[in-house]
Amino acid sequence: MAGPLIREADFVQSVADALQFISYYHPADYIEHLGRAYEREQSPAAKDAIAQILTNSRMCAEGRRPICQDTGIVNVFVKAGMGIRWDTDRGLQQMVDEGVRRGYADPDNRLRPSIVADPLFARKNTGDNTPAVIHVELVPGTTVEVTVAAKGGGSENKAMFTMLNPSDSIVDWVLATVPKMGAGWCPPGMLGIGVGGTADKAMVMAKEALMEPIDMHELLERGPANKLEELRIELYEKVNALGIGAQGLGGLTTVLDIKILTFPTHAASKPVAMIPNCAATRHAHFVLDGSGPVALDPPPLEAWPKVHWKPAADARRVNLDALTHEEVKLWNPGQTLLLSGKMLTGRDAAHKRLAELLNAGKSLPPGVDLKNRAIYYVGPVVAVRDEAVGPAGPTTATRMDKFTDLLLEKTGLLVMIGKAERGPVAIEAIRKHEAAYLIAIGGAAYLVSKAIRSARVIAFEDLGMEAIYEFDVKDMPVTVAVDSRGESVHQTGPAIWGDKIKKLKIPVRVA
Length: 511
Description:
Number of domains: 2
């Protein structure tokens, strides 16, 4: 008997709908576990960051706009039953890419195209976020199981791999590696770990492990049933005991869960891969059986905890249009600022062009005057409806470290805004020029965008989302991460909270 017929139109529509769905709905398990982390968090900075993420999450669910401005590189895991038939003349890659193209171009919720080709030289944006990365498995059965994920660059860039000796400790490697990952992956999130097989197999398993439901709370309540669950709990507790905390600011929760998949491997090998999932964890699972496209059920609004972020009463208001060295010198690490006025934006590609112009002794483009101004490391989502701009959260600042001293010295730039820590080269440049680095919360892009009153492209329009914009903002919330003296909260915060957890024996469980 012939198996069910899977129509191309149904497959493509289901992929497109899933990408829209995961852009604005967090999985319910993530919301629940993050809510528990918020309730028990004792670090004020980390608690504020989690409050912004939770508030942003509900705003996105209600407004149907992206949780994060980085709407990801699409990863698709397909398990195709060998009993099915396809009604299409296209290959699987073509069908998935058509679903991505439609999903990202939806006029009611435009998603940011972030994919560039080729990766080595031109790095030109493909304009529709294709192609997707696909993993296919042929399995017995008469259905097609599909898991769709959108993986942000901040967390993807922190993927780690090692080839351990068979006698080496995975726990030791993880605990030595996580602090080196910094906060660019926007904790609190998950760690997916793949062990065994070959190097490529381990990496795929680590990615696939992130698609599993978050169940650490339930696991801690019932206790481990096998050695793998014992290992998950051990890693969960020891990673959180590092004190890295939300956004790397120091706190009790760095990971909400740790997932591990294994595969038989060569007797001489122990390949281990680790990939984090960020605060914008996005994935959905659906099954096609030939009856039509799939409709996903959104989490009920009651699933979100009653957390409504608002700035602290002692937050300092800053007029960006009258920014001075004297004002910047008053800021302290960990302090909350509310920024109002005009700022410029710029990411990797824009910084590269600016550096080339400065090194060649040429003038910067008209309108790009950085003297005594702030630059925001962001690539926003295109606006829809009455928005000034779409979700506009920060990108990882360390990618701009090598340009920092040049821009501070040659342009008079005073303030940089991004996410996560700065490296030693950038921190020294900030100290030398008595500038400052501020962070906006990664995973709160829609919340941040509500502070942006107007946006216009002023240079490098051909770079798309990496063009230089001018934003006019009102009370945009940020935290001082590196002050004019070169003190970094990403160094002091985790050190303080790691010591507190150790000395005061603060429990790191959420059960």
